[in-house]
Write a structure and sequence with these properties.
Blueprint lengths: L7 E5 L5 H14 L1 H10 L3 H14 L4 E8 L2 E13 L4 E11 L8 H15 L5 E2 L7 H9 L15
Parallel strand pairs: 4-5
Antiparallel strand pairs: 1-2, 2-3, 3-4
Helix pairs in contact: 1-3
């Protein structure tokens, strides 16, 4: 759990938090060895693509959002959520990506708080499931997601750039 002597909050990114989201996600996308290993397959477009994506989240909230976590007034974590229709769930599900905790803040419960608060907000909105993935070599991320209640699907996510 996050430290109890500070105020930890979570919310959807608004235009006011856009720069905080950019800083956290740019750091993650440029520094994470597992993301970098797959970035070409994703068609990574660098900082310009990230800025465009954040603008799209703000202008098209029906497609998804960025979930921000703050400790007092400092952004310490964020993740990306996109909506999809699931034929197996018979409803809307959330696709979770780019889970990021500020460098130096790992291991303090921020990631667990982020996903727990996100799950609560999604459940209240009627979302049926959260899907995510992690790099095959990222055992730490896999263990983290399993601790958060995610179950393995025994399949691999693939991408095709158009």
């Amino acid at each position: 759990m996050p430290p109890t002597d500070t105020t930890i909050t979570a919310k959807k990114m608004s235009a006011r938090e856009r720069d905080d989201a950019f800083d956290l996600l740019a750091q993650f996308l440029s520094a994470d060895e597992h993301y970098r290993d797959s970035s070409a397959a994703y068609g990574d477009g660098g900082p310009a693509a990230l800025r465009n994506a954040l603008d799209l989240f703000l202008s098209r909230p029906g497609h998804g959002f960025v979930w921000m976590v703050y400790e007092a007034d400092r952004a310490v974590g964020c993740c990306v959520v996109c909506y999809a229709i699931s034929t197996s769930a018979g409803g809307i599900v959330a696709k979770l990506d780019d889970v990021s905790v500020r460098s130096g803040q790992e291991g303090k419960g921020i990631g667990g708080f982020m996903l727990a608060s996100l799950a609560g907000a999604l459940r209240e909105a009627g979302i049926r499931r959260i899907d995510t993935s992690c790099h095959l070599a990222n055992g730490a991320a896999r263990r983290f997601y399993l601790r958060q209640g995610f179950l393995p699907l025994n399949e691999e996510r693939l991408a095709r750039v158009l």
